[in-house]
């Protein structure tokens, strides 16, 4: 597909979609997260360890894993490579860096991966049709070091008093 100004605008909309996906995930904003996904989305996160068919299953699955104040995460997508396949279809590769702290479980994860996404434009808006990632590396610290101290959290009411 030829690169026109319209193509660049479509690619920017897809970039904004993925950024919103990560922000919604880390903020536990499941309503916003849902808007990023096609109803028939398919997922294979962590090389298929977390696979879901359909938006409702994906959102409920992630809520079951992540929707608690003691689980904090940072997901950042870097270096997007987005290819327009048709006016309403695209695919992308993103370099992920994630950091997860589980205060209740007493562990912390840091890793990187490559996301492979497919996008579809329906009713004028881009949505994620398929998504998954394979790890480049992952490190786990458990138990949390004695000197580890959380000094701020979006989910800790005491931090907002």
Automatic annotation (TrEMBL):
This is Nuclear transport factor 2 family protein. It holds the Pfam family SnoaL_4. Residues 9-129 form the SnoaL-like domain. InterPro entries: NTF2-like_dom_sf, SnoaL-like. It comes from Pseudomonas azerbaijanorientalis. The lineage of its organism: Bacteria, Pseudomonadati, Pseudomonadota, Gammaproteobacteria, Pseudomonadales.
